Amino acid sequence: MADTLHALSVAIVGGGVGGLTAAITLRQQGHNITVIEQKQQYLDSNGGGGLSISFNAIRCLLRLGIDEELKQIADEATEWLVQRHSDGVEKSRTKVEKWRIFVHRTDLLRVLHRRAAQLGVQFMFGQSFQSLQEVEHGVKVQISNGEIVDADVLLGADGINSKVRPAIPGNRDIPPELTGHRTFLVDVPKQKMDQHPDTAELYSLPAFQSWIGGQRAIIGWTMRGRESYHFQMNDHRVGNGEYRGTNDGSTERFVSRVADMPAFRESWKDYEPTVRQMLDAVESCTEWKIAELPEHVAWSDASGRVILIGDAAHAFAPFAGQGACMALEDATVLSAMISRMKPPYDWPAVAQAYARMRQPRIHLIRENIRAIIAICCQPADDVPGPGSAPTMPHLLKDEFEVVQNYDAFEEALKVWDTLRLNGERN
Ligand SMILES: Cc1cc2nc3c(=O)[nH]c(=O)nc-3n(C[C@H](O)[C@H](O)[C@H](O)COP(=O)(O)OP(=O)(O)OC[C@H]3O[C@@H](n4cnc5c(N)ncnc54)[C@H](O)[C@@H]3O)c2cc1C
């Protein structure tokens, strides 16, 4: 841990991927960190726990000192297979290396939590953020048990329905908007997949599988040491494939169990037999109404002492598998910039530099998501194969060049040093 003459007190609301990463990286610098998390503990959710983490974000994870633990919980793919939805005809097969790992969200949160606790991060579980009050040299954070947490700076890492976000002037009337797109998450245990030769075959290759067509797409991968298979089924038919849907007002809860499984299976009956067999093998699945935030959210207040990271700042649709990855990058960038600061801390400068660096990158991811939706919404029999553009592998190339090769930590230091915001390096 670095020697820090002036250890900061940092309160972090939300112990998700973004909040825990910020907690670890700032604690590694010697700061005093308190994480306020509304959940009591990290438990398996009811199905649909798959998280795909791309190499830009793996770089961030590898800075946390969890290399061995990460290996224990991660599956990898060596190929990306794209198939036509209606008959499973292979459209492309791309070798991938240093691309993505596939983890169960709860496993990742537990690894991050263990590491943070080991470093001495303080946790207040079962407590939710109530309000904040800015004082001359800091922030007073009121939590649900009535306690006040004093901090030099507060990070709002409390997800898409953030309560910290509306406490920043200008964000009061910016709720998440429903896009009209839906995602269904299915985790199938290996023994169920083994019951049919077609579904069993999905295990024969360490491949990331996708089926595209009919204004929908499915992606699938193995998880937990190839013990279960995770399917993410994206349905772009609602809203006629429009990226923007309307806000039906029910933005507090986006996730529910599919009530009518036979009707759900029926709505995917134009997909090839392997998909239908997989759907026959499961009794339930989870539906997410996909919501996102507009781009004009303010990421910090004027004092720079209240800063948003992750979904709290920029929730977007999950079709590029980048939401958690961007939360990891946000935390890494902000911590890298803070590591360069010297007292007296110029919080407005760091908050501005962080937002100015991160916002164009988030915009780029949103553009990628639009391109992915456009591919999925092409007429059913005209899903492009290799050679025609754009295709998923074309996007994969972009991913490598623009997304995967990105080192958030190094980029942040470059930006900070270029701005010379705080004099010479520490
Ligand atoms: C269907 C679906 C599939 C996805 N798949 C992927 C994927 O494969 N790869 C990927 O990178 N991203 C994926 N994402 C996106 C990813 O889940 C999010 O972007 C990511 O979880 C954001 O992390 P976060 O830490 O910002 O917020 P969250 O993960 O939402 O964490 C917020 C934390 O804050 C806590 N909290 C909330 N309110 C309060 C409060 N008032 N007080 C205290 N604590 C509070 C919550 O309990 C939670 O622990 C997917 C999203 C969806 C919907």
Shape label: globular
Report the count of strand segments. Answer: 19
The average pLDDT value, as a whole number, equals: 87
Superfamily at the CATH H level of the largest domain? FAD/NAD(P)-binding domain
Helix content: 25-40%
CATH class designation of the largest domain: Alpha Beta
Major sheet size, sense and barrel closure: 8 strands, mixed
CATH architecture designation of the largest domain: 3-Layer(bba) Sandwich
Q: How many helices?
A: 13
> Within the CATH hierarchy, at the fold level, what is the topology of the largest domain?
FAD/NAD(P)-binding domain
Rg, please?
22 Å
Order of strands across the main sheet: 6-5-14-15-16-13-18-17
Give the topology, please.
Elements lengths: L8 E5 L3 H12 L3 E6 L12 E5 H8 L4 H7 L1 E2 L2 E6 L5 E6 L4 E5 H15 L2 E4 L3 E7 L2 E6 L4 E4 L1 E4 L20 E13 H4 L3 H5 L5 E7 L2 E8 L4 E8 L19 E3 L3 H6 L6 H9 L4 E7 L13 E3 L2 H4 L8 H17 L7 H30 L15 H13 L3 H12 L7
Parallel strand pairs: 1-2, 1-12, 2-8, 5-14, 12-19
Antiparallel strand pairs: 3-7, 4-7, 5-6, 9-10, 10-11, 13-16, 13-18, 14-15, 15-16, 17-18
Helix pairs in contact: 1-4, 1-10, 2-10, 10-11, 10-13
Protein name: FAD-binding domain-containing protein
Family: Belongs to the paxM FAD-dependent monooxygenase family.
GO molecular function, one term: FAD binding
